[in-house]
Automatic annotation (TrEMBL), chains A, B:
<dbReference type="InterPro" id="IPR049874">
    <property type="entry name" value="ROK_cs"/>
</dbReference>
<dbReference type="GO" id="GO:0016301">
    <property type="term" value="F:kinase activity"/>
</dbReference>
<dbReference type="InterPro" id="IPR043129">
    <property type="entry name" value="ATPase_NBD"/>
</dbReference>
<dbReference type="Pfam" id="PF00480">
    <property type="entry name" value="ROK"/>
</dbReference>
<keyword id="KW-0808">Transferase</keyword>
<keyword id="KW-0418">Kinase</keyword>
<comment type="similarity">
    <text>Belongs to the ROK (NagC/XylR) family.</text>
</comment>
<protein>
    <submittedName>
        <fullName>Glucokinase</fullName>
    </submittedName>
</protein>
<dbReference type="InterPro" id="IPR000600">
    <property type="entry name" value="ROK"/>
</dbReference>
């Protein structure tokens, strides 16, 4: 065997968020070599945004040695459709209707470009660089401002017939329960296990037991955040810890449903909520196990993401590039 | 182009049920050419059962012209594991522990043999011969004595990491709700949308409104069956129709959750419950749509199975044969 070198190749990862868009150049090992960011809502039209973004991409590309080293561009975006490379009616972006973003970027950059929603990108990132390396069946769940998810079965992301599969945050776990502030659905997982949901639960608990002492009461009820709940729980506050127990119960019951759907080897959790460590993991695992059929019990790992949070979105988007088949990417 | 014939090839389908095992020889078009059956619980050991079954398979094979025309054997069985070809701890079979049935049959018959659970087999049957022909993303749900399901995404059955994915009947849709008679889970779909569940709902409704007239009252409360509910509903009985409304609501809410998981093109329903036609389809679709995110609304077809019910189990099992890759089948 000759000592041939692995070809030096990089992927560009772009994470489009409601506030910021982060861009990076990433190597096969998941190291972010170059980094740029821009404000998403500053650009009135998708074209103006793409122009501004591509200036930054070219800057980064020059720094790593030119575009012959770049295999492609991966984009994670809210309501991103993998099949069409479009962003469709994203509620937290100012561009209306259907935006053919992947095509716009690949025309401008002359590089194959794949696009999916941010949660699916996170799952591909875990498979490529993170806790799901080598797994063919797993689910990632992001517990942040919202609850996002990416599902991998048979080694492939499940995109569904229309490219929108994997909206586990919007599955109903308390029929007739808490109304979601933006979807208007009742009792969805996101209404409870998101940062907003945790704050709502804390407010409800404080109001339900007005006599009970809690250091949470030092905050204005309406301004209470999930961060406050975390801080107080760490200081041993009972109501704050109850909030995590309740949230973990609902999350665990939801995970049981997901396990009976796709029987994953692992469920990988990510995002602000899991900073609470065993306060959230223990009730989650307890209630997941309690609601599983015997054939699924004590089999599914519930683990933390391996990816560094600041880089995770870029890494996930960049990982789309390594997965690229020409047929799936615009060029 | 030469006028070469399509090779004449047959598949054997075997459906192992708690009461009967049905065997058939099926052609590519899904026509059952030969048929045999045997009593499952009559055989004390798996070996005795396999011996008796293989006698019947050989009888059928002789009638269609010998085993060089047989591509393989597909078996649908409760708790069947596709990866290992084993039946594992099936509660309604008398054989205990893990039975390596696919290996036993393929050794005896010298034909490649694939095995999966009956619900997954039904999904493969719909894809091969039925309502899902040409679809790459769909879910089949059998609403019979129990509630079974098979999930296809990216054109492949989702088996999960252990071979047991697709237990949608056991997902929880009413947390803390009705206790299931055999799993002891609370509020699972099967506790409501199975034949047993329908009978329980009818009993509950009759007891809740003891003054309300219903022709259901001509039956002994404890002996009431889903068939009675069907008959009375067809005669316009109000409580019986309410039973379907309630069952459809719970089924529809569950379907919404499944759609947000895998975004299927269609959900194909099968089994006794759907005989009630629009009495069950209307509330099911209504409550599914009501619980979907806008991006999923009015997209998913909820349809009846195309397969003839008497043959469906054999067809589903036989369809495993056309899907066979050597790596998945025991030989």
């Amino acid at each position: 065997m000759s000592m041939s070198k692995i070809p030096l190749e990089y992927a560009i990862g772009v994470d489009i968020g409601g506030t910021n868009t982060k861009c990076g150049i990433v190597n096969r090992r998941g190291e972010v070599l170059q980094y740029e960011a821009l404000s998403t809502p500053e650009y009135e039209t998708p074209q103006a945004f793409v122009d501004a973004m591509c200036v930054r991409l070219n800057l980064m590309i020059d720094k790593v040695g030119g575009d012959e080293l770049i295999k492609g561009i991966g984009i994670g975006a809210p309501n991103g459709n993998y099949y069409t490379g479009t962003i469709e009616y994203a509620p937290n972006l100012r561009w209306e209707g259907i935006v053919p973003l992947a095509d716009m970027v690949s025309e401008r950059m002359n590089l194959p470009t794949a696009l999916t929603n941010d949660a699916n990108a996170a799952a591909v990132g875990e498979m490529q660089y993170g806790a799901a390396k080598g797994m063919r069946d797993f689910i990632t769940i992001t517990l942040g401002t919202g609850v996002g998810s990416g599902i991998v079965a048979n080694g492939q992301i499940i995109y569904g017939h229309d490219g929108f599969a994997g909206e586990l945050g919007h599955t109903i776990i308390r029929p007739g329960g808490r109304k979601h502030w933006s979807t208007d659905l009742y009792g969805s997982l996101e209404a409870y296990a998101s940062a907003t949901g945790v704050a709502v639960t804390a407010r409800e608990m404080l109001q339900k037991e007005p006599e009970k002492q809690s250091i949470l009461r030092k905050y204005q009820l309406e301004e209470l955040t999930s961060k406050n709940v975390f801080d107080c729980a760490m200081q041993g506050d009972e109501i704050s810890q109850e909030v995590y127990k309740f949230t973990g119960q609902i999350l665990g019951e939801s995970l049981a449903n997901f396990v009976m759907f796709s029987s994953p080897e692992a469920i990988i959790l990510f995002g602000g909520l899991i900073k609470a460590g065993k306060l959230i993991f223990e009730p989650t695992i307890e209630h997941m196990e309690k609601n599983l059929l015997p054939i699924f019990k004590n089999k599914v790992k519930v683990i933390k993401s391996d990816l560094h949070e600041a880089d995770a979105a870029i890494l996930g988007a960049s990982a789309l590039v390594w997965e690229m088949k020409q047929s799936h990417a615009s060029l």
